[in-house]
Amino acid sequence: MFGIIIFLLYSFTLYLLWWSLYDLFYSICALFLKKHELAKNNREFFYIVIPALNEGEVLFNTVEKALAVKYPRDKFEVILLAQSIDISILEKLRRYPIQIIESGPLGSKMNAIRNWLNGVEVNDESIFIVDADNELLPNALSVCSHAMQSTNCAQLARKKTAPRSPLGILDRWNTEVGIAIAIHSRIVMSMHPFIVGSGFGIKAKLYSRLLYMLNIFRRPIQAWMYISHRVLRWSITAFTLPLLYLLNAFSLDSSSAFLITLFIGQSIFYFIALLAHQFRDKSLPGPVLAIYYFVLMNYAVIVGFQRFIGGKQGGAWERSVRK
């Protein structure tokens, strides 16, 4: 039995060491991001697509920000994919100059967009995807338009609507950490940012093809990249962190210097994260913030999963709380 615990301990350690160093490295890189003026133009036509499931009054702010972008009014159209939205909310939304596509729950954001694309004919237009609780910044489309003159997809940073509850704050922090790792760090390293789910522009025809690229038989490399980096990263790592700590605690009787050092290192790591949380409103050193964000990000995954299996949460945060 003890041998099995040691085997699991070493296996989890190697797995987490890879992802920990990966996240830590990119988190530190993000601290060196320098702001600079971005080029803009108004050449692209955009469909601003807002998938929304069971959302409430938060949609008013989202739609208003989308309509207020500094971009020619004849060069964009706002599309609200309204899944199971309350009738009273829909009546108020119809006052805005937007197109509303009503439906029941479609399972995911991707399914909702696919359902809409199946009913429209697209040519050279682009889609700019915005989550229901995102605020579209005034220059987002003009910056994205310039970027898409040389590429078919451009990821921008997202801005969340101001949270109204502790869970909303956690969701916002998790988003900011994801942006730092997936976008800011890679810009510092002169690499292409990852697509993080919303706040990005993409050619409509390309998105239509991407919907079928996760077929592991047709596109095994792309499918594996998604499964390894997105699915496994966000489904296994967060749960193996506490399991690793417990296994390490059970194995201290082995008198192994490595295991003892590993346990002490983990304890210090989590203690630093706890202190950072207590003083999160203060100015903290970059390495401390990196540790805090790493722990916070994985904690958010566990909380979200607990709410999901308890039937309190679907595919988006705080649908009832943020109305």
Can you offer a commentary on this structure?
With 323 residues, the protein is an alpha/beta fold. It has 2 domains: 2-30 and 234-309, no CATH class; 46-158 and 196-211, Spore Coat Polysaccharide Biosynthesis Protein SpsA, Chain A. Helix content is 52%, strand content 10%. The chain has helices at 2-30, 58-67, 87-93, 109-117, 140-147, 166-188, 204-210, 220-235, 237-250, 257-278, 286-309, and strands spanning 46-53, 76-83, 99-103, 126-129, 153-155, 200-203. Strand 2, helix 3 and strand 3 (99-103) form a beta-alpha-beta unit. The chain starts with a helix and ends in a 14-residue tail after the last helix.
Topology:
Elements: H1 2-30, E1 46-53, H2 58-67, E2 76-83, H3 87-93, E3 99-103, H4 109-117, E4 126-129, H5 140-147, E5 153-155, H6 166-188, E6 200-203, H7 204-210, H8 220-235, H9 237-250, H10 257-278, H11 286-309
Parallel strand pairs: 1-2, 1-4, 2-3
Antiparallel strand pairs: 4-6, 5-6
